[in-house]
Amino acid sequence: MNRTNGPAMARAENDPPGGRRTTVTGRLKALGRAEFVMLVRNRTALFSALIVPVAMIGAIKMSLKEVDLGEVGLSGIEVAMAGSIGMVLIMAVYANLSAAYTARREDLVLKRLRTVETSDREILIGTALPAVVLAFAQSCLMIAGGVAFLGVRAPQNALLLIGGLLGGLVLLSALAAATSAFTRTVESAQITTMPLFLVSVVGSGLFVPLEVLPDRVASICELLPVTGVMTLIRAGWLGGTEGYDLLGAALNALAWIVLAGFAVQRWFRWEPRR
After folding, report:
1. Most buried residue, 51, 119, 158, 205, by most Cβ within 10 Å?
2. Cα separation of 84 and 233, whole Å?
3. For residue 135, what are the contacts with CB-CB under 8 A and spacing of at least 6?
4. pTM for this one?
């Protein structure tokens, strides 16, 4: 991979002592701009981020044909649209960022960035910015499209919906950074991200709401990493979730964000795995 941020890094390295220092905002913009260029050039990553979540709407709806959603007060298209937001988080943020962090590490970009004034946190956030912004914009468009063209009800609690979406973006970004620590190559990222993908699709309410599962199974699924986020997103968009369940979902999301942050701090690798 070419050094996409080479000019910015060269300027920082050549600045004379006492010269004008860059700001946090400026550094994040530079990193985000470089990562955005790399994302646009990577057609496979762009396809996975933009097309796959939309294509999964039909698959999710098909999976609900034999499920009685009447008891939870939802239609098949509503469950499918809410699940597609989860797919955006997993594909556009988690899968793409896991590969991106791994690629930047193996190509020594992360190591070089640590030699200038950019902090570790800024490097992680700057790398994640394009994927996060893209996922947020795509989610908003899918919500608007579902309401305008597919007969999905308007968001019942916009603040809860946005809070759940932002929490999901933070969580999946942190999980991506943590996963990259155990990923040797960009190609192997497809394997290391698969467990969370499968667990989330099956048990976090992306395809089938937890309310229609047996109580014991649902209780286990409530502990999964993406379940809390999905509960908040669906409740904010479609309503129907009580306060006690929302509190449990918020605590679940917060706990996993803290755990993912600890994993990044403890195990994230800045140099290539040899």
Report:
1. 205
2. 11
3. 49, 88, 89, 92, 93, 169
4. 0.88
